[in-house]
Description:
By secondary structure, this protein is of the alpha/beta class. Helices cover 35% and strands 19% of the residues.
Amino acid sequence: TDIGGTTDAKEFFIAYWTDAGNSLCTDSDGNDVVIPYDSWSADFETIAEDIVDSGCDSVALFSYSMDGAGIIEELENEGFGGTIVGWSAINPLQESDFSDANDADAVLSIMPRNNQVVSESERGQAFWEDCVNDSDCANGIFTSETYDTITLLAEAYMLSESFDESIEDSLHYVGYQWEGASSNITFNEDGDVDGGGFDICEYEYHSGNDTLTLDCDYGEWMPPGLSL
């Protein structure tokens, strides 16, 4: 089963999943159980019923944390016993998102590696020391990536002016094993980077203090076919 309103990620998953020789769960009419929804008007109970009634044994969840929590909760209420896997934007699931936080136990999600640890580079340490002391930065999103983008462009521009090189060539020269605030960066010939890959994480419920933690030792995934 595939659920979510984020079309690009959902369609990429479906293509990747089916190209690998897998199939999606189907309903009684033989249709793939792919459930787009509108966050403002979604009926999570009906979504969960459709999944259970179709006999699906796993769910790929492309939603944000509050919607994801609602769907997970309704799946538990309907007696769903299969695997639930959420993409990175489902994080963080918190105890307060659920009537019973135990509903999130064993839910899997992916976590970009560069979101989990502070870069150990000198540039990364300096950026994060400044960022935590600035509320706009500390509460922002993609701040380290933005910082790296601007810094790389500035360094490439200075190199191009000094040696009369094109910006493109200068970016490839500067962007080789460049230690940034978000991650270590090496561009391939298409201007892509591997991004550090993803860890596969599992939510664990602790009944003693009614808390959720995320264990990211479950596995890993690296983008296939990225030739640097």
